[in-house]
Amino acid sequence: MSSVAVLTQESFNEHRSGLVAEQAGGSSSAGDEEAPAYKDAFPPLPEKAASPEGTQEPVNAWTSKIRPLKSSVITQVFHVPLEERKYKDINQFGEGDQAKVCVDIMHKTGAHLELSMAKDQGLSIMVSGKLDAVMKARKEIVSRLQTQASATVAIPKEHHRFVIGKNGEKLQELELKTATKIQIPRPDDPSNHIKISGTKEGLEKAKHEILLISAEQDKRAVERVNIDKVFHPFITGAYNKLVADMMQETGARINVPPPSVNKTEIVITGEKEQVALAVAMIKKIYEGKKNATTIAVEVKKSQHKYVIGPKGNTLQEILEKTGVSVEIPPSDSNSETVILRGEPDRLGQALTEVYAKANSYTVSSVEAPSWLHRFIIGKKGQNLAKITQQMPKVHIEFTEGEDKITLEGPTKDMQMVQSQMEAIVTDLVSRMDFREISVDPRFHRHLIGKGGANINRIKDLHKVSVRIPPDNEKSHLIRIEGDPQGVQEASKELLELASRMENERTKDLIIEQRFHRAIIGQKGEKIKDVRDKFPEVIINFPDPAAKSDIVQLRGPRNEVEKCSKFMAKMVADMVENGFFLSVPIFKQFHKNIIGKGGANIKKIREETNTRIDLPAENSNSEMIVITGKKENCEAARIRILAIQKELANITEMEVSIPSKLHNSLIGSKGRFVRSIMEECGGVHIHFPTEGSGIDTVTIRGPAEEVEKAKKQLLSLAQDKQTKSHTAELKAKPEYHKFLIGKGGGNIRKVRDSTGARIIFPTPDDEDQELITVVGTEEAVREAQKELEELIKSLDNVVEDVMNVDPKHHRYFVARRGQVLRDIADEYGGVMVSFPRSGANSDKVTLKGAKDCVEAAKKRMLEIIEDLDAQVTMECVIPQKFHRSIMGPKGSRIQGITRDHNVQIKFPERVDGPGKEGPGKEGLGKGGPAAPPAEAAVQENGEANGEMVEEPAAPVDPTAPKKCDIIVLSGRKERCEAAVEALKALVPVTTEVEVPFELHRYIIGQKGSGIRKMMDEFEVNIQVPAPELQSDIISITGLANHLDRAKEGLLERVKELTAEQEDRSLRSFKLTITVDPKYHPKIIGRKGAIITNIRTEHDVNIQFPDKNDDNQDQITITGYEHKATAAKDAIQAIVDELEEMVSEDITLDARVHARIIGARGKGIRKIMDEFKVDLRFPQPGAADPNQVFVTGRPELVDEAIDHLLNLEEEYMADVNENESKMTYMKPTGDRGASSMDEGGRERGSSKGFVVREAPWQTGSEKAPDMSSSEDFPSFGAPVAAANKASPWGPKRF
């Protein structure tokens, strides 16, 4: 029990006056006390000085307290012999299962493992970590890395529990210690055998430990004595003192069941002699008390707990005082009879004690409405704490739903507590009220508001408590408690809110989920505008994961309708603008549609108000996607097609085909229409949108191919309309090229003879063997028959031999057999085998389908004929143009070799005197082979030659240079055509005059501008060096590219000239003179005002720097009319500021902080409310109370009145706080006051005084703090001292 002293003002003053007197009286005695000795106050540290052997270091105040620290990390090494290793694969040390097991053990236990292999192939494992982790790791190592053995040990069944230990702790400790697994039979199992599994060493240790435990238990005895429960208190004694004395005297363990356990058996364990002695003592006590007298008395059931006392302490107290045992009936019994048992002469005293304890506590109640209970308790129990601190033994109990408070406590305290509680209840009933209002539960959460905002506002405003029932109660009643007026106003406001909500309407809008993100906008900007427009409407979007189209609107009926219409219009606009169509445009024209610097595409986008997306450059797609309103998309499509039509010989033709046939003509995944487009040179066929009912199909492309595609499309439509039939057959993919034939010749014959259309799979199709035949039933049947015969013949594999001159062998097998691979692809996978190099044989073997072999043989003879008929021709082109002719990565030269089927060899590049670079050669498909002497050549523009050195020879000045001669090999007519193609690629140069000052803008940042032009026009642009100061720019490229490049360059010059003129117009400057004191006002908070002026007038406004001479000059730069407008705007602000006045007032500095508020919140509110500027004094100002108010005269007066009112209000609080501080304990600040309350001067403190200090004895003096010898710096050299320091011997 604890008591609390209540300190009143009178007792406080009495205590303080007594304390002062005591201090005054005690000051003289304190001075008389002897000061402590220096060695006692500051005992010296132990010194490690050289001492004679055998002498011990003296123990002093420091060394006696020092304890050695032990490391928490230990390291143990375990050895696993080779014969006991579980993983014996020596080659896999450090990896495999063994390493995985070790890593797993480290993760499980937190210990660190290191493995090493001994010479005898045994495994040594070093384990580091905390003791517990090391022991666990050891157990895991033994069980998982070491082979296991098992053994059994037999001990008496009754000893098993000692092996297990309390809660199994002994068994776990034993398993960790021996690194074994110990299995003990269950209590219901009659077996006494304990099974042990682990290593041999661990088995022996575990057996030994278990046998030791059993042997120890054999020495012990157990005795059970049955004594009636009522006599147990006499054996234990009060507070168990008697039984504890017996255990100490005999050394045996005596276990008496506690009062709550209804057992009569007392168990004694220990050595046999000890147990016998303890049993004799217990029986002696029992015999002495067996005939004790008993009396029974009636005590109210409610008073039994006071007789028992906390944790039975009262019963023990009575037993200790009187030697009488008090027996209380169980709490679940209705009996009120209490039995006292003991010596007759002590029963009377015990009975008096029982009645005294029973009547020491009283229970009473105070009537109080249940709704007032929490107000009586107060916030965090503050109200009750006042009572319970004075009367800590009184227990006050509130029961929910009951209109009373139960009090329980000592009789002497109860009357005071009850009167205090009744006074509190009376006071609360007189000034508190409550009201219950009925509101539909569906509106409850809206009354509460987001995060309780609404209900908290009402509570704070009206100072009431509002209880809204939880949803699971489904109750209509809301209870409001508090001040009667507050209750009235709060209930009125809540009913108004509920009434308004009843008038609310909830509407579900169906909006496709794909539009939700667009309506919400980036970071919710768009939906914020909608919510600002309709603030009373709550808009809820579904969770994106729900995939719901329902958007819920809730609010006043009229506002919901308006918002619904507004959002429906937004969606309609999005649907209208969400139309898109794809336009197929030939890939080579995409860059023309984009235009220079994106000019064309940007113009189309702006004028048609559409979004146009082009495929990526590395994409094979030709589709340009246009998105926007339908009519705008159509307009953009027409303009894009017009650009393509203008650039190429593209015609557009419309064909009328019934719309019902469109799907069948397109085919599955567009197979049919795609086959027609590919066959007709890549024309574009556009079908109208499905379901539109339009019959017109548009074909676009080169005129000849369009006509061809039209015929095929109409033919296929006619077939479909008359009688369309489809058949499918399969053939190996390698046969498809042979079935199609060169240039589609084979398949065309089948089509012409049967009239059926044959469609082969594209690379994207899943089934690469499927061939589809479409047409009339008869045509399909005939075509199918012919194709099946062809496929059957292809399956008939034959082998044939032909003779090929060995000099041509190299051509066929060169480049990893590229020519042979092409033949195999074209002729159904025919395998062609040439004799090995050096075999001197001309026999070549062909293996494959008979028709394929014949066709391949014919093709090879054609190639040989070309090789035999080849000629060599020279073409002279200056070497400086060779790189341009080759094109990027040799693409142009490869095109010529492919188109004209010739071989082209470029001369070696001359890099310096007597040195030549590698030659370059282009090889055409099926072209003639190079002579054997020129084996190391370059093919297809790819360098694979080597540097060669040749002796210098006399050169004919009229003859062309060797480095300019390009050699062509092939048929004569093809070589001549190739020479013309090469000469057409020779670049020409033209010059354009561009003002020198514009050159750097044309080049652009890091050359980006000029690179872009060169890439766009495929030319080389040469800008003269800056030191030349030349206006001439050279353009070099193909003749047909020069005009476009020149035009583009002149267009860029025109743009730059216009930009220069605009720059000069924007450079107009003017200055305005403004008093520097107005500058902060013009700039505004965080630059808001000046930023607004800059943005609105598109000008740059520069304020003077701190070091400028003209501090009143503001510079404005921009267009002349805009700079003038900005000047007028600044002047208007200055005029307004000059009309303002500034007045100073005196406000007590102690209230400044409260006026300013947290983070300036208070002062900002005043400045915003009165439109004035307030300036408080800085710390250290001459007059800390002076405050400046600036603004319009009438507003300044209002602000000053407001500030003075605030000062008066806050000063009242300051004075009240200062009056309270007079009762507070004075602080330790010595400078605060040197006088006590009585006006007596306090004596100055002498500080801490010691006797016999080193500087007081002998010639020693106190250390000098300015001396570098007594107080050396870290790292500084120190001279050896000849004398002892007051601080003790120096250690440096």
From TrEMBL:
Subcellular localization: Cytoplasm; Nucleus
Q: Which GO terms describe its cellular component?
A: cytoplasm; high-density lipoprotein particle; nucleus
Q: Which UniProt keywords apply?
A: Acetylation, Cholesterol metabolism, Coiled coil, Cytoplasm, HDL, Lipid metabolism, Lipid transport, Lipoprotein, Nucleus, Phosphoprotein, Repeat, RNA-binding, Steroid metabolism, Sterol metabolism, Transport
Q: Which residues form the K Homology domain?
A: 147-215, 219-287, 291-359, 360-426, 431-499, 503-572, 577-645, 649-718, 723-792, 796-865, 869-987, 988-1054, 1066-1135, 1139-1208
Start-end of Basic and acidic residues biased regions: 907-923
* SUPFAM superfamilies noted in UniProt: Eukaryotic type KH-domain (KH-domain type I)
Name the domain of life this protein comes from.
Eukaryota
PANTHER family per UniProt: SCP160, VIGILIN
Q: What is this protein called?
A: Vigilin
